[in-house]
Predict the 3D structure of the following.
Amino acid sequence: MSTISTALRNFKEPTKEQLTQIFFSLPSVGSLDGTEKTSDQHVEKMDINAVLSLGVQGVEDSYAGKLHIISPYLTFTSLDRKSVRFTIPLSTIRRVERLNARAGIYALSLSTWHGMKIIVQLTSLRPTADLFCSLLRDALKIELQRGQMKQVKGFVKTCYSEALVSTTSTVADNEREDGSLISEEKENAGPRESTYHGGLGLRFKFPGDPKKLREASKIKLWATYLRTHGRNLTLIRYPQCTRLVQVGLPNRLRGEMWEALSGSMFLRFSNPGVYEDLLKQNEGRTSTSTEDIEKDLHRSLPEYAGYQSQEGISALRRVLQAYSFKNPELGYCQAMNILAAAVLIYMSEEQAFWLLEVLCDRLLPGYYAPSMHGTLLDQRVFESLVQRCLPIIHDHFQDVDVQLSVASLPWFLSLYINSMPMIFAFRIVDCFFCMGPKVLFQVGLAILKINGEKLLQIQDDGGFLNLMRDYFASLGDSAHPNSSDPRARAITRFQELLLVSFREFSVITDDMILSERRRFRSEIIHSIESFSKRSAIRNLKTLGRFNKEQAGLIYDALYKAMCIVPPPAPVNPPPMLLTPNDGTEEKPETRIQLKTFQYFLSEIATWARNEKIVMNGFQQRVDRELAEHEFIDRLFFFWDTSCSGALSFQDLVSGLDGVMFNDLMENIEWFFNMHDKNKDGFLTKDEVLTLSESFLFIFRYEVGDAYLGAVSRFMTNAFEYGDALLPQSESEEPVNEGDEPSSPSRTIESNQPYLNLATFRMVVLADEVLESFFETDLSSSFRLEPVPDVELPVSNSGLLGDLWSTIATDTNKKMFNMFTDEIGKTIGKHQVMHKPSIGRYTKLEEPKARESLLTPSMRKSPSKVSLTASTSRSTLTTSSSSTLTVDVKAEPAKAFPNIPDSAAGFSPMVQAVNARLMERTAFAIDDAKDDEDESDGELDDNENDDQVMDEVDAFLEAHDSGLTDADKEVANDLLRAEPLK
Amino acid sequence: MSDSASGSVDKSVQVKLVLLGEAAVGKSSVVLRFVSNEFQANKEPTIGAAFLTQKCRLEDRVLRYEIWDTAGQERFHSLAPMYYRNAQAAVVVYDVTKASSLEKAKSWVKELQRQANPNIVIALAGNKVDLVQPSASSPGAASSSESEDEADDATATPGETPGSPGEPENLRQVPREEAQAYATEAGLLFFETSAKTGEGIVDIFTEIAKKIPIEHILAATRGTTRPGAAGARSNGAQESGVNLEENAVKSKDACNC
């Protein structure tokens, strides 16, 4: 039922470079297909101080600011970062001339495609200016080679502004008629095969009364502005531009200006045909998103005539679907239908599609994501701004327990379109695209401020909503109906709202919002995550024998694993031709693959991780690594009851439930079943070997040889009993001890039913070590501990809520660790020990054995082979070899001769075990005779717990002092030895 | 409508009710039927939640339902706590023709029982029964709707449907008994409803009204923010709204607003 997402973890604060890109509305890398090419060629970026002026007869002043090359764009912003700015694709620059000006002045004249001249005076030092010029030259060359220059001509024809400017004022006169494509296609720039893009408004009329909106005069003003300041791709934003936007864009120009102001035009420009292709490629495809879209198509601005027609509905469908195909992770979120519907009144589908991309990706980041974290975050930011700017209202809301978001959430989510009458909402949208997301906050604050007195009267959420509803309905009324001044009476409440927004709340800046977002992000992420954790646990079909806290710990481990190895995207990956649906259903469940499972298990099962205790003289820490073994894979598939190749949270809980509460007999059976692949109640000989291998894997870091001996006895007994209990006569089978070539002849039986549960149980119970393993150790090797294990510095990741920040410090920590290790090595204090997974017999039968020789992979036995590889390895070997036991010497000696009988032939593994045991025994004897350490003392000792403890302590100390000498020697030897070769 | 905004004396008992359920099970339609006795394609898209109010009369009391109709899309789920906090009642809606919607409803119930107001009255409503019934009209259940409901079981059982082809029953994916059993087990009010025909809609709100500890709410509000609410016992005959008792008798043309 539940989906678990770690997507929020991946959030990174934008870099300075990215912030610049956002500021200039540049397409973010990756959203632009064309960037692949440019990224190869290492885009040069540079900024330089400059003074901008236009080649038009002195209309505007000059502005000092910064000129940037961010290939393939040239951008400029005035020093205050708001008066003047432009973003121009390099491909629209047709000519660059160095101006022959007074001495000491370095000025360039840039002629754009629209014939406008931009004069920039580079005010940096001469060499910097030279460098800038050469970069500009190179970047322009590249654009020319890419053929982008040729695209410009075709592209600008799709823009209404071209038609507007070329026909001078006649268009303005035509404004009120709605005959769509007015015939100003004559004249200019050769044959025009395509006309400008436009929205549904051209056919179904634009909302509002054009006379009241004073469309004609607005169009005239804009025509003048666009003629002198560039248009569409080459638009330069002088203060007048912002002012014109604030009085409301004219309907016909609105779509194009939204595109130009938001920067979505650059996406459309550099991705020609992508929209159509996307629809073509995904034709007929259905998904959860497309289903959701269908439900909402008729609920999107239904009062607008265009959406009572098939034409409008299908345009809306295509745009929303195309976006959901482009960004399947986001898919479709309610409220996007309203945005798209609104935007389509003024824009073509393709324009709307790219605008939606900019909205979801840059302007409203995370608003429509599955977790809606952006929405929640901005609500939190808004609340904090209200607290700061309107503390009285905020306090009152607190007092009467009214939640701001009940009203303000839809404001933000639908850019006020859902809340206000459309004509007003679109003017806010105009400002939003021109001035950025801060507008939403400014308007929100102004709404509250204007209604301040009434707000202080409200007692509950309902009253708040009703008040807001009434206010929005009255936006067209006079703000000062009782004023004697007719001009004051003429001011509408909406105008008042905008005035208050931009005058009184001009303190709200983009930077402030960014920093507020930063402040609350982790709080929001934490609350979303704990919410989804709670619902994941709630949605479990069964908790098994766990309580909720334990389930929470399992969830945490799963979550952490997912942070490390994210599962593949859960969103409908393959395009399905038909909807099988209903059974598999809409909400995909989060399921983890094997790799994630390995991490998960390593959090919980002690044997599923390699823990090395590293001491380097400065610190002692535990390095945790993932263990990989077939046993873990086996467990994965054992728990995968639905055979889907992936595990859900429920699978994990049930799986753990199946082992963590077991008693001796249940554990034996569990272990048996896990290795009984075909579930026929019998293990084959191969499976017996695999099972032994599993034992060895689990015991690989146990100190001493008790476990090794136990496994070896187990094998002996298993094959002995197994052979004895076989129904057919086994006379041909035995013998050939240790003879490898004979194994092929037996493989026939190696996959036949061989050992049943009863026999297995008998064999296990025959051994004290294994018995105790199954009695308690197996179950307790699964430990539900708070995930950030405080004692383990490396995996210590603070609370889950701060995982991100700790990832950052993790790298630091790693560097520090490496650094200290290096020092430790050079001064000979570096040591590594493996931490045992079970650790029971350290203190009982095997007091003197402190370190197992077993290594994760038995077959390769690297610890011996690679003895020379590093000092740390050699330490391991030294320490263990010096502390072997008498006990084992005797035991295996007895056991050995039996093993080869039945087992040796089957697997090189068994031989390896035997060989190892042999080896080690001999080794131990040799070492025992050595004077090194206290090993000879140990030899004589008979076990005594207290002594053992003392010895353990002594041993640990010895590691610090005595053994380092040995280390040094080894290291020195190695140093001396290698050059000889 | 703005009476509460002005904070003036409100003679009714205010009951906050939230509608939850999977997308497209008809939450908004249920509300619309209750509030304005209409059925139509939804005009207002639900972003976050829609807010509506309806006054009802039950015996000598006037209840003012403040209804929060939440968005059904899964990703709005995390916003739901904002709407169900402090709610005294919840209607969890599922679609009788869609089995998965009952699962979602169950998870909502679980969530409400754990996270919401501990005294919350929860009703489970299986909507769209008109799709699985042979005829659209059926007499509204009386106030003792539980026993009536059991009598209705016969029609819900395939094969026993008198005089109608089994065809509409095929659409049914949630057997009435199953949902009823679940509701009983979880301690919920249970109804099968049709926002289209109006069947069972008013009953939900009637039964909720009966079950809500009104005295409790009154006592709570009296003590705190709403001193005027103490006098809310007047018959409120002048109020335009739903008379729940009358409606309980003839549910079809209940609302006179």
